[in-house]
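Could someone model adenosine-5'-triphosphate with this protein?
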Amino acid sequence: MIKKLIRKILGTKSKAARDPNTPVVLGPDAHGIDPRLLSNNAVRVTSTLQEAGYEAFVVGGAVRDLLLGVKPKDFDIATNATPEQVKRLFRRAFIIGKRFQIVHVMFGQDLLEVTTFRGTTSANAPKDEHGRVLRDNTFGSQAEDAERRDFTINAMYYNPANQQVLDYHGGIEDIRAKTLRIIGVPEARYREDPVRMLRVVRFAAKLKFAIEPETGAPIKVMAPLINNVPAARVFDEMLKLLMSGHALACLQQLRKEGLHHGLLPLLDVVLEQPLGVKFVTLALDSTDSRIHAGKTVSPGFLFASLLWHQVLEKWTAYRASGEQTIPALHLAADDVLDSQTEKLALQRKIGTDMRDIWSMQPRFERRTGKAPHKLLEHLRFRAGYDFLLLRCASGEIDAEIGDWWTAFYEGDEVTREELIASASTPREGGGGSGGAGTGGAAKRKRGPRRGGRNRSGRGEGGNADAPAPVHDGGAE
Ligand code: ATP
Ligand code: MG
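Reply:
Sure, complex below.
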């Protein structure tokens, strides 16, 4: 028992005894990076800096991806040159950031982020009452820069000139063992910056790495600290998580870590609604596929999907209390956006996009007269239509309505007129119903000749033809 304890202490010691100031240096044979995965511009930046007498390396996620044989989506560069010194060397270079300045170097559309080595968090760096570091902007040595990075696999430096990888924290071993390990004492690192807990989940899901037990253990207890982080930062990290191409896996991992509770109101909503699960799963699945296919994904569409079932629930409640269909939808959207905006710092543009997508939905049920043509001209039609298809696929509404719109969207003028004519004939069982489980809405059929059943006694039939107040303000 005692021997075991001693071994354990020595064992831990030997790991900690790896001198964090002296990196392990790996040559091309040892690390096996394929130099063709490197972007020309990354090499251009490092060689320009080196020719001017500075140190310069590719760093962070790009080195991790190179070691995994994946083409990095962007390249960060770390150097001992100051931002001013970097800026002088490039024609299109911009110093950004107030607290810690970094340099954006542009070549055409390609943007590279050049960061001066940062010093380790000093004990007297200003912190909030929970220990979160508020400002810590000193420059430092490369070893210090490595120490303040989050995970061992994100703290390696690659020099394209001599093709060497510098590894200060055993990142190579962890990459090989597919292990996600935080640098330093996990509790302390999460306290300094609680966003790192979200990053654990994102990387574990994206890379399919196991979370090293000590790295994972404090998360459940410390998760509420995320609430003290400025909403805009949490939102940025959330967006990275959702746009990682592994959104579904990330959300499943959040659930596994018990992180969905209280971490973000959005996730509480998304992961706890039995009715919404199928819809959200489909939405995230299609987002992941789009990202893998190199297509763009709009954050507005993504968040509109994540929160749709919350909107549906409130929409139904407002209608039940006597509001008319369209105003009820807007009230529901207001409630949902308000409750999420505070914690999530949803940018205005994203909020506008979400509202556009939601408020287009009832308009898809109007398939007579000029209404379908008008809707087709809507700036955000494509997003609204894709959203409609998700609703069909999830079983929330009848697939027939999606098929009709696909035929209308793809059809020529003759086909479109025929479709409108067919929609004008009363059908049995066709048309859109309200949301799954939305009670009164499910029973209501909005056809041209039918007034909706109206519990409040206010005429609702006219609603179907009333123009939906779509907010076009922020549309592209
Ligand atoms: P991705 O490929 O998803 O962009 P990444 O590792 O490049 O992954 P970024 O958010 O772009 O992630 O961050 C770049 C690097 O900056 C990381 O690899 C890590 O070294 C460091 N870093 C980022 N965020 C933190 C943080 N919260 N704490 C410590 N280091 C961080
Ligand atoms: Mg990155």
